[in-house]
Amino acid sequence: MAHGAGLLDVYKQAREADATYAAARTAWKATQEKLPQARAGLLPDVAFSASTQFNDRDIRFRDNTPAIDNRFNSSGLNLSLRHPLYRRQNNIALEQGRTQVEQADTVLAQAAQDLITRVAQAYMDVLLARDNVAFAAAQKAAIAEQLAQAKLSFEIGTVTITDTHEALARFDLADAQEIAAKSDMEVRQRALELLIGRATPALAALGPGFRLVSPDPLALERWVDEARIANLQVRAAQFNVTLAQQDIERNRAGHMPTLDAVAGWSRNRSGAGTIGGPGTDIDTKSIGVQLAIPIYQGGLVNSRVREAAANEERTRQELETARRNAELQARQNYVGVTSGIAQVKALEAALISSRSALESTLLGRQVGVRTQVDVLNAQQQLFSARRDLAQARYNYILATLRLKAAAGRLAEQDVVAVNAWLERGK
User: Fold this and answer.
1) Sequential DSSP letters for 92-104
2) CB 333 within 8 A of CB 397
3) 340-393, pLDDT tens digit by residue?
4) Contact status, residue 236 vs residue 64, Cβ threshold 8 Å
5) CA-only gyration radius of the chain, Å
6) How far apart are the C-alpha atoms of 85 and 408, rounded to whole Å?
7) N or C: which end of the chain has fewer CB within 10 A?
8) Cβ-contact 339, 333 below 8 angstroms
């Protein structure tokens, strides 16, 4: 017996192959460098330079002194060190670097949650499309059987041609629905292939282990409150507010003095012939501190502070938008889970009733109290109930995952939990 790939298998394939998630990981890796870059502003800056040049100097005097024609070589070595003792801007930049790294962790976690929901959606879409193909084929086969019976009954004169025409029309419609279902399944498979980077494997279907589980906690407002705080988009937006506040302080620090420790060493050599001399060797050493006090920069600092303050207000509005969206997602998906449970139970009962109705209609036709059209309608109702039940189950699963994503809870163990509901033998 072959085994279909489960949701966990497909998710692991997508983690390795999905381009969107790969880009998020690369962006996270790049952001990690913000911290050492910011830290560099508080560490010593050491520079070394060396030079050598040939000089041809022709000196003419304005009196009768003979002219001097000098040709000599000069060279120099320079080593300098500057260590910040007080630079408020650089300290704030280091704080911003830490904030950016923390934000990158949140954004990557959000990308992982997004990957789970995208993989689950694509997986369930393929299962539903596959079910629709099976339902359409079964319905077509059942109608074909009724069509054959109608033709036979017409030939022996027990029914009119109307029953045959009705069955033929239903058969043609079922044939068209089967073609459409197969086309839709092809499209759904290609969508899944975009995530996993390979041909869609045989997928495991929902098995007898599927269970309807109510949200925990069973209180909508608690999910909404959690989403306002723990939703990853909200957390990322909160980091943007923090960065904007730090940016205001960093720009204000442009008014503040800076103090650096400086040290230097240089060696300069000039060959014989420098202004007629024998040549020189000069070694210079220096150490000290430098204080710089900004006095006026044309209003640049104040303008930057105003710009940063406006950006901070923008990030606050974006944070509020993220919170409202998180609340909406929590409410929608909570209702999706709770109403999905009720809908699945109702459709399970409807499926049982539809089967009983079909059996009764078939028996009624045998005794002459039901017509061929009644049988076709009962068959249509049964296959519609099967299709609606399958879709309701998949929608319930997706709503469960999205509810946890809205509250910032969604993780790989949730994929494992859904995977346990799948029947691996195919």
Assistant:
1) HHHHHHHHHHHHH
2) no
3) 999 999 999 999 999 999 888 888 877 777 776 777 788 888 898 999 999 999
4) no
5) 39
6) 42
7) N
8) no
